[in-house]
Amino acid sequence: MPSRATVRSHTAPVVGTVTRGTTNPNRLRRMDRWIAATHGAELRRAADPVAVDLGYGAAPWTAVELLTRLRAVAPHARVVGVEIDPARVAAAEPYARAGLVFRHGGFEVPLSRRPLLIRAANVLRQYDEGEVAAVWQRLCARLAPASGHGRGGLLVEGTCDEIGRRHVWVALGPEGPRTVTFATRLASLDRPSDLAERLPKALIHRNVPGEPVHAFLRDFDRAWAAAAPYAAYGARQRWIRAVRDLTADWPVADGPARWRQGEVTVRWEALAPRA
Q: How far apart, in whole angstroms, are the C-alpha atoms of residue 250 and residue 193?
């Protein structure tokens, strides 16, 4: 595995380590869809909303797609793709366009201004759990601060499978973690705990008895089993019913409009690892 040491360029220190760079077109569609729905108003309010696709990988598809999806809800949004591997930055340059540029960098986020969004998908999976808190803190410090007009920038950090069918991410503001979102293609789901393999690094090793995320997935499986009669109306109706039952014991932060997308968002404090 590459060294955790700070990688230096000829201009400034670049913080992080080179990832495998695995990427596929449309892989992050579920995360992007959620960002557009929940953070779109914040982006629209800004005079010059900047988003960062951190660690976009060996090809720039996710940065290109992020620009398209954000501009559907915030027409003036700009995207900066940031990669720690200079060769990947050079390979992405032909895809630059109005509103989309690529920069060499890492967790220091080499922008002159604080962005309203940092998306870091499948970046921390190769790191140790003990390194996550410091990375989160560094990235949250780079976000646009909260103001009288809004809650400030958003960091979305999580993991998905190779073609984006299953995805779990944590949303953080300048103040720290807010929520955890589970998203899936319902037709591919046997039971909700199938999503455990895509938990972000902060939670994946905590899926053991005695930890909140383990209890949540256990209760979700039970609610899914109890909702089996709704499968006659389709997997979506079964999911909606199971999530509705979960709300009796867990602080679910969204509603049926998001559940219909194969999503559920839970307050971070309910799933946070025990000390």
A: 16
Residues 140 and 274: their CA atoms lie apart, in Å, by 22
Mean pLDDT of 114-130: 96
84 φψ region: left (φ > 0), alpha (ψ -120 to 50), beta (else) = alpha
Rounded distance between C-alpha atoms, residue 71 and residue 66, angstroms:
8
Give, in degrees to the nearest 5, the angle at Cα 108 between 16 and 31.
80
Asked whether 165 and 184 are in contact (CB, 8 A), the reply is: yes
Q: What is the pLDDT of residues 164-215, one digit of tens each?
A: 999 999 999 999 999 999 999 999 999 999 999 999 999 999 999 999 999 9
Query: Are residues 179 and 267 in contact, defined by beta-carbon separation less than 8 angstroms?
Result: yes
CB contact set of 258 (below 8 Å; sequence gap of 6+): 34, 37, 264, 265
Whole-angstrom distance, CA of residue 142 vs CA of residue 153: 9
